[in-house]
Design a protein that fits this description.
By secondary structure, the protein is mainly alpha-helical. It has one domain. The protein contains 5 helices and 2 strands; from the N terminus they run E-H-H-H-E-H-H.
Length: 131
């Protein structure tokens, strides 16, 4: 809001996992839990991500996201974010409950992944101590 009088707009990007050298390097040291959670969605091409972010920035959109997961994330985290149109604001209001319900299923799945990994680590540590 501070830069709005100067015709400066901000776009917040929610990029998904993107097939870049940095992502490949990250995957080499990523904890198992994080890798398994990350695998629940697809990896995007850098050109696709860049094209969408630039398009949204040019259009003056505050949020830029890719795919349905990204759209849901940007809607769920909109809070006091400005909207580009009344339609965008109404979509956020109408879909908030549905998206929160879907997000709870995601969170349950992610919790299950973390719990399984913890149990697997505990089992491995027990085996290592007895060996």
């Amino acid at each position: 809001m501070q830069v709005k009088p100067y015709n400066v707009y901000v776009t917040v990007a929610y990029p998904p996992d993107t097939d870049t050298p940095g992502f490949a390097k990250e995957n080499q040291t990523k904890p198992l839990e994080t890798r398994l959670i990350s695998e629940t969605t697809s990896v995007c091409k850098p050109e696709q991500v860049a094209k969408q972010i630039v398009k949204d920035a040019i259009q003056g959109n505050f949020s830029s996201s890719i795919g349905s997961d990204g759209y849901m994330l940007s809607s769920l985290t909109c809070g006091m974010a400005p909207v580009t149109s009344i339609t965008e604001g109404l979509q956020q209001v109408v879909t908030m409950g549905l998206f929160r319900t879907i997000a709870l299923f995601y969170l349950g799945s992610f919790d299950s992944i973390v719990r399984r990994c913890m149990m697997q680590k505990a089992k491995s540590e027990t085996i290592d101590k007895t060996a």
